[in-house]
Write a structure and sequence with these properties.
The chain is α+β, with helices and mostly antiparallel strands. About 30% of the residues lie in helices and about 35% in strands.
Length: about 80
């Protein structure tokens, strides 16, 4: 098994920020770890681990995996207009 590189960490202040993940039928709102970079603290940045988490949530939404989504954050069901 190949050795994986550790995630790169951006120097700065760690914060938690809300993010929405949308699917055709479901939407989930979660809080993810982000960083306010020392060089430009005006916009929070997501590091690789947070992006992988959001990608996983997107897969669960696409697959309709309700139980996992409910554990991850606030789950909403879209109603047709």
């Amino acid at each position: 098994m190949p050795h994986e590189k550790p995630d790169f960490q951006i120097p700065g202040q760690r914060v938690r920020i809300p993010r929405w993940v949308f699917g055709e039928r479901y939407i989930v709102q979660v809080e993810v770890d982000a960083v306010l970079p020392d060089e430009d603290p005006t916009e929070p940045c997501l590091e690789p681990a947070a992006l992988r988490h959001l990608d996983q949530l997107q897969r669960w939404i696409n697959e309709g995996r309700i139980e996992e989504l409910e554990k991850a954050g606030a789950l909403y069901v879209r109603k047709s207009a």
